[in-house]
Amino acid sequence: xxxxxxxxxxxxxxxxxxxxxxxxxxxxxxxxxxxxxxxxxxxxxxxxxxxxxxxxxxxxxxxxxxxxxxxxxxxxxxxxxxxxxxxxxxxxxxxxxxxxxxxxxxxxxxxxxxxxxxxxxxxxxxxxxxxxxxxxxxxxxxxxxxxxxxxxxxxxxxxxxxxxxxxxxxxxxxxxxxxxxxxxxxxxxxxxxxxxxxxxxxxxxxxxxxxxxxxxxxxxxxxxxxxxxxxxxxxxxxxxxxxxxxxxxxxxxxxxxxxxxxxxxxxxxxxxxxxxxxxxxxxxxxxxxxxxxxxxxxxxxxxxxxxxxxxxxxxxxxxxxxxxxxxxxxxxxxxxxxxxxxxxxxxxxxxxxxxxxxxxxxxxxxxxxxxxxxxxxxxxxxxxxxxxxxxxxxxxxxxxxxxxxxxxxxxxxxxxxxxxxxxxxxxxxxxxxxxxxxxxxxxxxxxxxxxxxxxxxxxxxxxxxxxxxxxxxxxxxxxxxxxxxxxxxxxxxxxxxxxxxxxxxxxxxxxxxxxxxxxxxxxxxxxxxxxxxxxxxxxxxxxxxxxxxxxxxxxxxxxxxxxxxxxxxxxxxxxxxxxxxxxxxxxxxxxxxxxxxxxxxxxxxxxxxxxxxxxxxxxxxxxxxxxxxxxxxxxxxxxxxxxxxxxxxxxxxxxxxxxxxxxxxxxxxxxxxxxxxxxxxxxxxxxxxxxxxxxxxxxxxxxxxxxxxx
Length: 710
Ligand code: FES
Fold this sequence. Notes:
Bound molecules: FE2/S2 (inorganic) cluster
Shape: globular
Structural class: alpha/beta
Strand content: 15-25%
Number of helices: 16
Radius of gyration: 26 Å
């Protein structure tokens, strides 16, 4: 039986979990307890989940986050989002080929009363912003309810195996996202006045200022005094030929499969987009033993942190700047990707096309705030705050800070005496949100004696754990601003390697000339599985940009506790290039070789609306005919009318307007109506779907409640 699970990971604990059987198209398969249907299918080698009703095109996942509705399958006869539905023992899963038939209704269904719950603050989203806000609300004694559509708290933090940037004091810098999620959850759970509803999707804000939620399949009305929207972000889509083939999906979806569900969904992947999300996804793929064939970025430079880009380049991943993706190719799923260099007008330059064999293409071209709840709440006069990516796309460290601030602001507006919000919190939040600065020339020390760190950090980003952990005070940042570049200020280094271990960018090495000045020992951070490196191995070392410096011998591999699951690899090297070494290559260059000839996809299937399979050509024709209202486009083509409610195509349609030279001020956007998430109609009537009828009371207060039933 195919096994695409991760059995060994350098950072994540791979626990034994109970397994049980389910079927896919009548074929017996095994699933882990607590995994989604999508992950269970991927773990069994299934990547095509159905075929579209319009043109029978194969369908797979895109967001793995409940946003796009691409992953629908039939489970025991009912259509479900496979990325959001936990697999149950014995469930019969079938592909959704065409449209699902309505289920048989035998007689009048049993109905239960719809519960109404009154809370002081409803927090939508249990990620970094929502949890941080809830902690402040908990401290202030505010009756708070957090709803989250996942089966565990943490939001995107549970996907982040890397160490965080920022400062240790303010936002857990140097700690891995997965561990921050655990810490925040433990803190939230201490407050009796903060209730948590998992597996609960917020559906909409209504004109009576109530919020409808679907809790474990039951419709519940929540009546908050104040709403906090901490719903995070959704990934942007991209139009190119073959863009909906199974195997083309978001980088966040990939991280969900790999880091949350420990599934290896691909053997060879290509990444489109050089922001932090794409760069980090590439690193996570390598950690999971997946080959990363390359990354392309349309801009002349990656927009993500340079340390993330350098890390990938050093590990052996080619980065193609000023390149765009032309097409994904394959009959039923991705078999290759073709990219080309672009000119200053963003047009592909003929003759620069390159194709790579791969089975997966990650789209990492940016994020959009999930802010529809904010707009609806404002429209209907429900007091509302937003935090984290729902307010402004930034790093998770910034989200935690804005969450804290919003928590206090809400407590204050509810009349709690929480004092003044410290001014420095606002300053820190802005610092953490800041874009990376310009890249400067790397400052490599001149000296060749003693022991000292080399800081391969040449871009101003908000980060300072290296100065916090240096007990000798040898590393400083001039001034108060943590965005400054760290410097080694001579003498005093004892070679403890704490700075090497804590640097989230893996951008510090330690060079030790004390034993043999001609052959110093260089300490390099290494976050791959133990079996991939041993004392005595010969490894290829590279400089910051990924230029090969030589092959050298490993003299020691250590895992000190302070390195938090990272290895400190010591290599003995020639003096000439010791100070330039920044990393060890893990992926052989042959992996990233392009195909001999580039692959041109003939089908003109640049899809804008995935749900209704509307092409770019159809929408362009309408724009060229003078249409300036997206509602008209929707009426004429059905673009935006599908199951996802226009969440994935709206941006692409706006982009087409821009490409056609139409300023967006002249374009009327789609009218957003409740609901924002698909719900079976029976849920609003309280249809009981098999479980016992629970005792209900019409209005219940969160303070009287326990998790599992207010
Ligand atoms: S992949 Fe499941 S909703 Fe997007």
